[in-house]
Structures are given as C-alpha cells and as structure tokens.
Write a structure and sequence with these properties.
The protein has a domain of 54 residues: Nucleotide Exchange Factor Grpe, Chain A, domain 2 (Roll), CATH 2.30.22. 61% of the residues lie in helices and 15% in strands. The protein has a three-stranded antiparallel sheet. Strands 2-6-3 form a three-stranded mixed sheet, with no helix packed on it. It is elongated and about 105 Å long. The termini are far apart.
C-alpha cells in the first residue's frame, strides 16, 4: 500500500491533536500572572517607603525650624518688653525732672528773697511761714536726689558751669570760679541747669 496521505487525512489528524499541546495550561498562566503582580507590588513598596521616610525627615526639619523661630520670637519679645519698660521708666523720670526744672526759678526767688530780709523782720512769724514753704521746695528736690551746684572756688567745669565773665583774682587760681551768680542743679549724672559763674583769668 502507498504511504502517500491525502489532504483529507492530514486535516483529520490535526483535528485529533489535543489542545494542550498547542496552548499553555490555564493554571500556569494564572500562576505567572500572580507572580508578576507580586513582583509589581514589591517594586512599588520601596519607593512608597522611601517617600514616607523623606516626608518624615522633612517634617522633622520643619518642626525644628518652627521651634527655632518660636524661640527667637520669644527672645525678641522679651527683649522688646525690657526695652519698652526701660524707655517708659526713663521717659517718666525725665518728665519728673522737667517738672522740677520748672520749679528752679521759684526756688531762686525764695533764695534771693531770704538773702535780703531785713534783720528787724528775721523773727517775724510771717517770714517763718514763708521759710517753711521754701523748705518744702527743698524737700521735693531731695526726694528726687537733686542737688545744688555752687562751685565757688572750684576749678571751672564746662559740663557743670557756664562762664559769663572772667576777671583777675588774687583769691583763687586762674581757671577757678570766683563767684557763683546762679546755682546750678543736677540729679545724679543728669545736669538740670548749669551754674552761672565768673572765672579767674
């Protein structure tokens, strides 16, 4: 018999071939798909973890920056309060001294008046009452630690004295105060009024 096969026989043989020989198994395909998905998840886990770590580091930096800013603002506010309190105290003290300066001409008038009181009236009760008013003014100056400056015989100091004349003198050395024409006043290091003086030439 001849081994030559007809086309019909070839077609029949192809139809009898099991489907499993030409196509992959469904279970193998599903397993490969799951492995691929797991591999994909693993690839996404690392970047996500890295992002969380980076976010944590940035949050810590931001928290430190905010804390530093808060500490700095707190220190600046404390310094501002101290500076404001000092300025207010200084302004109040200066206002007090300005008020005292306005009283100095009145005190001068009292001093000149008592320098020229006649001896016959020295014991008069009315003079005694006026002298009491003068002492009250002096007490106010003492309360604010204001002291009079009468530099007669002392070296001339332009920071405390104002020279309104110069003349020769045998009593004091040159450059010293011959006479005080108007007393000066100062409170601590603050000069309220310069003393008007004559200086030896």
């Amino acid at each position: 018999m001849s081994d030559i096969k007809s086309p019909a026989d070839e077609l029949e043989r192809e139809e009898e071939t099991p489907a499993s020989e030409g196509a992959p198994d469904n279970e193998d395909s599903a397993q490969q798909s799951e492995e691929g998905a797991e591999s994909s998840d693993e690839q996404h886990d690392l970047p996500e973890g890295a992002n969380l770590l980076q976010m944590l580091i940035e949050a810590q930096k931001e928290a430190q920056t905010n804390e530093d800013g808060w500490q700095r603002a707190r220190a600046e506010f404390a310094n501002y309060k101290k500076r404001t309190a000092k300025e207010q105290s200084s302004a109040f003290h200066r206002g007090q001294l300005d008020a005292l300066i306005s009283l100095l001409p009145i005190i001068d008038d009292f001093d000149r008046a008592f320098e020229s009181v006649p001896e016959a009236l020295a014991e008069d009760p009315w003079i005694g009452g006026v002298a009491m008013i003068q002492r009250k003014f002096a007490g106010v100056l003492e309360q604010y630690e204001v002291e009079a400056v009468d530099p007669t015989g002392e070296p001339f100091d332009p920071n405390l004295h104002q020279a309104i004349g110069a003349e020769a003198s045998d009593e004091v050395d040159s450059g010293h105060v011959i006479a005080t024409l108007q007393k000066g006043y100062r409170a601590g290091d603050t000069v309220l009024r310069l003393a008007l003086v004559k200086v030896a030439s």
